[in-house]
């Protein structure tokens, strides 16, 4: 089956890998002139690293493991410490923070030459019972048997299929970067989430002596940009406890990327006919739960599983099965992220929660939002039952 993928971000490249491995002919059409390496850094939790491994991509040698996620208040007081390594041990999969460009490189590695066509800005799609067609700004068209919209939070494919763009601002935005900053976090395995009345600062080691840093604050569309974004951040957050002032003293204006938060209700069905969606195109969400890339990887893994047997007799039915299978858990995490709850100033009672309980709850929560971990756990339990049956049978006279 010939599959058109619109967008060469994390979701699009991951879908291409999975569908190629499933035996399909894949064309990826990307509007940019090259692979997009912006986006600072991201964190892949156990569900994301598991899906990535299943798609045949490796993270060996890149990024930094995250064993602890520590929440502090603006005075530097520790509120709670989450043992994320507990989830890594439970699922046998690491948590890795890494530059986004490294993930894109690993996903693109090994794709056949010519798989990705650049400079192809999609302007519309059409489909009927026999196939799909994509139209591009340069006047070119492409046809195939199926189309995957992986063109992000402002997806043209989604707008065409749904008849509108449902994503709306959440009232928050992120200013982020990836920098060399001389603080202990860079060489460690602990991420920091620091909350205060002004907003949130996040700090994560990302490998290569780099620090992933971000500041979240309330924001409305049309808000005038200050003459210096960095000066504005220093005025808002510079009085916080270490290491926040050290971070702000070490970065430069040109390193800062702006990311407004958007959200929408995730429906049970994402596509129509022979067209479907993956990643932000299917479930735009704020980055507050650090699950955007992870959920995109799960989408690609799930879609390739549904189409692993080659071209199904009923392509639209297979795509609706993929969407309904993914929508429940993708919608769950999108609803949580949309509340911007992690950006709220922490309640004093947060300090009363035992770290061990929070770590256990985090591990359980991760499974509740992951189809990959659910399937992997079921496979492991089935394997254990088969092994137990073999051992029992061997003991019989």
Please sum up the structure shown.
The chain has 397 residues and is of the alpha/beta class.
Description:
- With 397 residues, the chain is of the alpha/beta class.
- It has a single domain, classed as FAD/NAD(P)-binding domain.
- Helices cover 35% and strands 25% of the residues.
- The protein has helices at 10-21, 46-54, 84-91, 100-108, 156-162, 229-237, 244-250, 292-306, 315-338, 355-368, 371-395; strands at residues 2-6, 25-29, 41-44, 64-65, 68-73, 78-82, 96-99, 116-117, 122-128, 131-136, 141-144, 146-149, 168-179, 190-196, 199-205, 211-218, 257-263, 275-277.
- A seven-stranded mixed beta sheet has the order 6-5-14-15-16-13-17. A five-stranded parallel beta sheet has the order 8-2-1-12-18, with helices on both faces.
- Strand 10 and strand 11 form a beta hairpin.
- Helix 3 (84-91) crosses helix 10 and helix 6 (229-237) packs antiparallel against helix 7.
- The protein is globular.
Query: How large a portion of the residues is in β-strands, by DSSP E?
Result: 15-25%
CATH class identity: Alpha Beta
Q: Portion of residues in helices? A: 25-40%
> What gap, in angstroms, lies between the N and C termini?
52 Å
For CATH, the homologous superfamily is named as FAD/NAD(P)-binding domain
């Amino acid at each position: 089956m010939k599959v058109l993928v619109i967008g060469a971000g994390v979701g699009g490249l991951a879908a291409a890998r999975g569908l190629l491995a499933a035996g399909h002919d894949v064309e990826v059409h990307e509007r940019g002139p090259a692979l997009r390496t912006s986006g600072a850094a991201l964190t892949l939790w156990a569900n994301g690293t598991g899906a990535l491994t299943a798609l045949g991509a490796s993270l060996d040698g890149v990024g930094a493991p995250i064993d602890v996620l520590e929440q502090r208040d603006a005075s530097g007081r520790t509120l709670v410490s989450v043992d994320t390594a507990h989830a890594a041990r439970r699922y046998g999969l690491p948590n890795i923070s890494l530059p986004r460009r490294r993930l894109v490189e690993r996903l693109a590695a090994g794709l056949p030459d010519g798989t990705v066509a650049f400079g192809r800005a999609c302007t519309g799609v059409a489909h009927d019972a026999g196939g799909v067609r994509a139209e591009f700004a340069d006047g070119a068209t492409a046809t195939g048997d199926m189309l995957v919209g992986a063109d992000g939070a402002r997806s043209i494919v989604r707008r065409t299929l749904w008849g509108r763009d449902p994503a709306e601002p959440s009232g928050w935005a992120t200013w982020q970067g990836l920098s060399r900053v001389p603080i202990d976090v860079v060489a460690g395995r602990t991420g920091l989430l620091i909350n205060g009345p002004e907003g949130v600062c996040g700090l994560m080691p990302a490998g290569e002596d780099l620090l992933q840093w971000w500041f979240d604050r309330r924001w409305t569309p049309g808000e005038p940009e200050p003459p210096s974004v960095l000066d504005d951040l220093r005025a808002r957050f510079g009085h916080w406890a270490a290491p926040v002032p050290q971070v702000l003293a070490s970065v430069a204006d040109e390193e800062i990327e702006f990311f407004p938060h958007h959200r929408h209700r995730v429906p049970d069905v994402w596509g129509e006919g022979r067209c479907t969606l993956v990643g932000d195109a299917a479930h735009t969400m704020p980055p507050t739960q650090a699950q955007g890339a992870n959920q995109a990887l799960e989408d690609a893994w799930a879609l390739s599983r549904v189409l692993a047997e080659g071209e199904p007799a009923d392509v639209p039915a297979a795509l609706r099965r993929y969407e309904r299978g993914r929508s429940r858990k993708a919608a769950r995490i999108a609803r949580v992220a949309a509340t911007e709850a992690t950006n709220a100033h922490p309640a004093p009672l947060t300090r009363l929660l035992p770290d061990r309980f929070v770590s256990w709850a985090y591990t359980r929560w991760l499974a509740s939002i992951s189809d990959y971990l659910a399937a992997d756990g079921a496979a492991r339990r089935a394997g254990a039952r088969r092994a137990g049956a073999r051992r029992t049978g061997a003991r019989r006279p």
